[in-house]
Amino acid sequence: MNHQRQERELCRSGSRRAGSRWWAVGLAGVAGLALTGTAVGVAGGPAAGSVGGTFAAADDQPGKPDRRSAESHRTEGRADGEVSGKKREKSKGIPVPCDADKLIAAITLANARDGAILDLASKCTYLLTANLDGSGLPAITAPITLNGGKHTVIERAAAVEQFRILTVDVGGDLTLNHLTITGGYADSDGGGILVNTGGALTTNHSTITRNIAADNGGGIANDGTTLVKHSTLGRNTSGILGGGISSSGVLEVTKSSVRANVTAAGGGVATTGTALVQRSTISDNSAQDVVGGIIVNGGSAVVEDSSVSGNTANGAVGGILANVGTQVYLSSVTLAKNVAGELAGALAIETGGTMTVVDSTVENNRAGTNGGGIYNADELTLLNTKIVGNQADLGGGIYNAATGTATLYNTKVIKNIAVTDGGGIFNEAGGTVLLNPATGTVVIKNRPNNCSGIVPGCAG
Prior knowledge:
Layout: H1 22-29, H2 67-75, E1 82-83, E2 86-87, E3 94-96, H3 100-112, E4 116-120, E5 124-128, E6 143-147, E7 152-156, E8 166-168, E9 173-177, E10 180-182, E11 185-186, E12 193-195, E13 200-204, E14 207-209, E15 212-213, E16 220-222, E17 225-229, E18 232-234, E19 237-238, E20 245-247, E21 250-254, E22 257-259, E23 262-265, E24 269-271, E25 274-278, E26 281-283, E27 286-290, E28 294-296, E29 300-309, E30 312-313, E31 320-322, E32 327-336, E33 339-340, E34 347-349, E35 354-358, E36 361-363, E37 366-367, E38 374-376, E39 379-383, E40 386-388, E41 391-394, E42 398-400, E43 405-409, E44 412-414, E45 417-421, E46 425-427, E47 432-434, E48 442-444, E49 451-452
Parallel strand pairs: 3-4, 4-6, 5-7, 6-9, 7-10, 8-12, 9-13, 10-14, 11-15, 12-16, 13-17, 14-18, 15-19, 16-20, 17-21, 18-22, 20-24, 21-25, 22-26, 23-27, 24-28, 25-29, 26-29, 27-30, 28-31, 29-32, 30-33, 31-34, 32-35, 32-36, 33-37, 34-38, 35-39, 36-40, 38-42, 39-43, 40-44, 41-45, 42-46, 43-47, ...
Antiparallel strand pairs: 1-2
């Protein structure tokens, strides 16, 4: 695939205006792809609707317990552990000896028999050497559970032809319990695992690590439904989008870690579908171009009770981007120590995107040009949130562009630093900032000043 990049026009630190919409150009420029193309999977993703999409049911509203997750905690991982203080029974699955050929044979038979539970050997590495139509194991086309144990690993042998570890096809429903998936190398999407449209994947207490995809989804590429629970996606790499996970379908990440993944855009997670991230950490991921943490492009996402920290982008957006046609809802989220070489240390809202941030903290993030904490070019609402200790050239705490409307309720903008102007808030001519001081919003102790531009109610 052609990975030639297009030149992008970017704002410079001396500029007092946002200029062109840099990330729309930048993302289209990454490897020359169009964001509406099939490589990203936009066509397969749900249209932007209410925030959270399919997660917006009454029992899944932010701040309320997730009934499905609670039920899964009581039932998942039947091979070991405890349920309600009682010892689980041993799995009655089919044992698979520590032999890659026997694992291949067992999966082939399970597909033919409309599914099975397979118990893999503990302290075993199933070393895959053959390329079976792009994967090291047969494509999953039926409900299949792979139960691992202590130190159970499925790995591609280093010296063999490049292929991913697993593919889940239409009708496939794969569950991984206590397994490590590593060494996959795909020449397209899904370095570790590819979930095609009509397929489903659930990972429990598993690790997806050190996999590589030439295009999207270094660890997992999801075009179907993927649930990541109590799992780690770390040190995966992709060439275009989603170093850890790329998703155009339905994605849920619960009590999991997505860390130290690398890509061109969207170091941790890139989603064009519907995504829910809860009680998880998205940390230390990096993008060679834009968006170190999470890029939401054309779909919807809910992030709650989570941390997005230590992510970096050589270009723009260290933490989370709400792109064109996107709705993002953050609740009880900590965004800390994210770094962007250009705009938006922690959060960015593109023209045509919306973001609501509730009960959250945006702290000690840094941008090279504008918006150390937040860069807003459309619709931003902050409620009961702290913007503290962020730094940029213009708008240390918040940079509000000419097309942006930022509304603050009971929000603290404190001790942020701008090198040039707008330590707390920089509002471009034409932009709107509503502080609502009667609700408890304060903008104080910022340097060199609290606000620049027209910000009614700000002490200057």
